[in-house]
Write a structure and sequence with these properties.
Elements: E1 3-7, H1 12-22, E2 29-33, E3 39-43, E4 51-55, H2 62-78, E5 83-88, H3 109-119, E6 124-128, E7 143-146, H4 149-156, E8 164-168, H5 174-184, E9 188-197, E10 200-207, E11 214-222, H6 226-237, E12 243-250, H7 256-261, E13 265-271, E14 284-287, H8 290-301
Parallel strand pairs: 1-4, 4-5, 5-6, 6-7, 8-9, 8-11, 11-12, 12-13, 13-14
Antiparallel strand pairs: 2-3, 9-10
Helix pairs in contact: 1-8
The protein binds ribose-5-phosphate (R5P).
Length: 313
């Protein structure tokens, strides 16, 4: 079966880099807006009989990118693709994975998005460092949950100063932070974070001794930067030294660069799961996921195990 790689508009450069690693040209497609703002997509290369990998992080503008992915899937299905896989390096709506008990009127958007992907004909989903590994249960089709951690860890290893301690900025991030701590042979501290609103968080207790240590804060994503800002001030108050931040998804929305640019952060290391320019933050290193995604696609296509490429539950 041939492989066809198709890039949605959210992060075409990552799709291109992945296709290059695989030695396959991108299959062209066009997305355009009609005057009434409806989105129209067309796949312009041959996909009949192919294993198609549709690249699209559902990063901001989340809804537009999601719809484009769904329409591209529909176009490929109608054009006779043999197997359709969505490659979603950043899965938007992942944080809406339950109703908070005090807000009964909320949607569980993550579940609905998973259903929409299935309805559009996507038979398999590849995602990277989902906000919550338990999201797998929302997908009726197989979910391949990759992790960027080994790539980011290798980039961090030569940059970390002595007396480093890995810090999870909240309880939900402990598994990911543990992976970094184990691989780097470092101790782990955990912050107790409470979310007050979509843009405001409060950090309370610190589990672990950070005094005199240099923190490496590890998170799945930096969105508004509120979590990192609060974590920095709690760590500084507790006597920690200059801070390094590692995150898979650098959304950097809503004034995040301004907020984070003024903090005592020595360096940021993020992946290119969403399109991010290195000049968005001072001392920002962007690690490409192209080789990870190419290896995952190669193994999926050959029906080989993915073992060390996947996230831990
Ligand atoms: C939340 O639980 C996530 O792991 C991140 O800590 C959070 O989403 C980051 O968002 P923000 O940058 O807006 O605080």
């Amino acid at each position: 079966m041939d492989i066809a790689i198709i890039a949605g508009s959210a992060n075409a450069s990552l799709a291109e880099a992945t296709a290059r690693e695989l030695g396959t040209p991108l299959t062209p497609c066009v997305s355009e807006r009609f005057p009434d703002t409806e989105l129209h997509v067309s796949v312009q290369g041959r996909v009949r009989g192919a294993g198609v990998y549709l690249f699209q992080p559902t990063s901001p503008a989340v809804d537009a990118h999601l719809l484009e992915l769904l329409l591209l899937a529909d176009a490929c299905r109608r054009a006779g693709a043999a197997r359709l896989t969505a490659v979603i390096p950043y899965f938007g709506y992942a944080r809406a994975d339950r109703r908070t008990h005090d807000r009964e009127g909320e949607a569980v958007s993550a579940r609905l998005v998973a259903d929409l992907l299935a309805t559009a004909g996507l038979q398999r989903v590849v995602a990277v460092d989902l906000h919550n590994a338990a999201l797998e249960g929302f997908f009726s089709q197989p979910l391949v949950h990759l992790t960027a951690a080994p790539r980011l860890i290798e980039a961090l290893r030569p940059r970390l100063p002595k007396r480093c301690i890995v810090v999870s900025p909240d309880l939900g991030g402990v598994r990911l932070a543990e992976r970094y701590a184990q691989a780097l042979g470092l101790p782990l501290a955990i912050l107790h974070k409470t979310r007050l609103s979509p843009t405001k968080v409060k950090v309370g207790d610190i589990i672990g001794d950070v005094r005199g240590h240099v923190p490496l804060i590890v998170d799945d994503m930096i969105s508004t930067g509120g979590t990192i800002a609060e974590a920095c001030s709690a760590l500084s108050l507790a006597g920690a030294g200059q801070i390094t931040v590692a995150a898979t998804h650098a959304l950097l929305v809503d004034g995040a660069p301004e907020q984070l640019g003024g903090l005592p952060i020595a360096q940021f290391v993020v992946s290119d799961s969403v399109r991010v320019s290195p000049d968005r933050l001072p001392h920002l290193a962007v690690v490409s996921l192209a080789s990870l995604l190419a290896e995952a696609i190669r193994r999926l296509h050959a029906e080989e195990a993915l073992a060390e490429l996947v996230a831990r539950g």
